[in-house]
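Q: Hi! First time doing this. I have a protein sequence and I read that you can turn it into a structure. Is that right? Here it is:
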Amino acid sequence: MSSTAQISGRDPSSGRRLEVTVTDGRIAAVRHGPATDGPYLSAGLVDLQVNGFGGLDVNAADLTVDQVHRLGRLMFAAGVTTWLPTLITADHERTAAGLRVIAQARSQDPLTRHSVPYVHLEGPHLSDQDGPRGVHDARFIRPPSLEEFDDWQAGAGDLIGMVTLSPHYPQAADYTRALVDRGVHVAIGHTHATPDQIRRVVDAGATLSTHLGNGAHAVLPRHPNYLWTQLAEDRLTAGFIADGHHLPADTLRVMLRAKGIGGSVLVSDAVALAGVAPGRYRTPVGGDVILDAEGRLTSVDTGFLAGAARGLLDDLGSAIRMADLTLAQVLQLGSTNPGRFVGRSGLREGEPADLIRFDHRPGEGLRLRQTWVGGELMFGRVEADR
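A: Yes, that's right. Below is the predicted 3D structure, encoded as structure tokens:
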């Protein structure tokens, strides 16, 4: 039996009334009315890099199916309707085990299957140098191996859809080409590669830069260096963390200008400590870390950042302030643009009804009211139509 509902709010681009008709979990029609006030309505956020949230970590050795399901519900409560569990550098079996659990979680729960299109592997083929390596465990950094990748895919039902690697390995271009041929997105990150090495993997099909400006040496040559090359390469879409800690405001603003809004995405890089109280913790991502009152998460041993402790919705508010962006622009960075890499195209007829309604006032962050996933209200309460 068919079901139809109407969800309305204010269009973030125009301020006009936006009415979305939902039939059987998909968008059946999108209509605009006169200018209005009240909460905004947009497509849900898409986060290409989530290690964990609210005390749950996809990199935990004892990860369970239930924890993956719970983590997805936390994502919905934070405005994210599509997210990529991100597994970092580990030994072969640890990665294989994490993939198996996430695959089982998808098979057992339609909402998880809907909101998790695939898994992002951040490593293990990264730089082994301090700085670019970040908090990835140096013991498990290793060159790309197609045999290892195929073993992971076979065990997880082709669940890997994105791989972040460093192009400095001699086999990086061939590996990239093989992954792209298998339908996998390849991103450049945690690297000390030369400009020529970067261009070779881009020629082979790499299309993304993972949290550009981070996972880098503390001090770089003025030029050339691996940041300039990725900024200049129009075939790469750059991911940025706009939490106020990973990139200073001036840096974020200039990098966005270099890539353009259309060539950029925002990611949270959230870890399990996102949304928890400040303190000292032991985590699978970074080991011993300190989360301060301002939300900065650092390794006790190195002082380097150990992931992020804020969600993507919070980062959108920060990006508005840091880079002088409009609400429509940050929603493009946090929803439309990353949606290109997961098969989501926003508020269009036929698309899944993954929607958020929220409040926003100039100078303030975004305050979530409701989240719908596949047309089902997953966060907030029913409100009278405006």
